[in-house]
Amino acid sequence: MEILHQRILADGVVKEGNILKVDSFLNHQIDISLLNEIGREFYRLFGKENINKIITIESSGIAIAAIAAQYFNVPIVFAKKAASKNIDGEVYSSLIRSYTHGNDYTAILEKKFLGPNDRVLILDDFLATGKAQLGLLDIARQAGATVAGIGVVIEKGFQGGGDHLRDAGYNLKSLAIIDEMTPDGIVFRNEEATY
Amino acid sequence: MEILHQRILADGVVKEGNILKVDSFLNHQIDISLLNEIGREFYRLFGKENINKIITIESSGIAIAAIAAQYFNVPIVFAKKAASKNIDGEVYSSLIRSYTHGNDYTAILEKKFLGPNDRVLILDDFLATGKAQLGLLDIARQAGATVAGIGVVIEKGFQGGGDHLRDAGYNLKSLAIIDEMTPDGIVFRNEEATY
Fold it and tell me: Do B110 and A62 touch (CB under 8 A)?
């Protein structure tokens, strides 16, 4: 997605430890006009998949899911990060390892909001090793829901999680895939190769 | 806001401890069509205030802020909940007591995203004792930003935080104010009295 590539090049900051900071437009301050373009692009990619619900994880996936949901005309459900002690039988839960923060957490989602009749689109801001997506896939599996697609704004291709999901047969589309990243520059994967 | 009142009466669940669960449409599963009506109403109430940024706190304020921001055509910034040990000199921070969860947390917001030239609208899903709003007001004060308004989807009027903010002179508008709440029923404050 060209305007996203350009925005990452203009405003993204590469930090040590394979961190890409895009907090000026995507996940702390958020450019809602850009998010509308992103939502429209997700609809172009997944609009024919008969999706009836978009799921994501708090916090940085929520704005993306909410804006995109307007194009699909469906509700969103966001999984919450919880301390294990809060979990009871009314929720699906999945343990997720957070790459960025180096700590584990449990994602929970109330059972009444996801079931076998749902065809879901999983959306998130980042995909690196894919742990967050695997957690949501695990929750969808527990619910008996069908995962019609996985949409990601920025995939760190060099960390392998995205290709692993593609190899497993998931319909994953990332709007920008970074194959190389140093403080001196960012190399995107050829866009035609990704869809 | 009549359709919000009706939705709270239809789908809200009153629990012990003054808890109103609206997680089927507002803060876990989210009805994006309703959120668009809410965003439009916030714009009707605050659209002439020359707002250039909407601020909120993760997580349940984010979708509301993102959808509303489309009407104002401004970016959003959401404060993050952080462990105190993560706080450095690059962020504004404010200690917030969480009524719902009974635990304290620190809200942080990067200094580069808020400053003296900003006229902000503070948005959130709930106002009870007003601690979250006071935290964001504190952060805006640290930044030297002007708070042009505070918008809340559901105010628990009987807990007093909203009237305290009005008495202090803030331009607070709540789309639904609950004056009484029991498992048997909910009494809303007269809408004309609130604007």
Answer: no
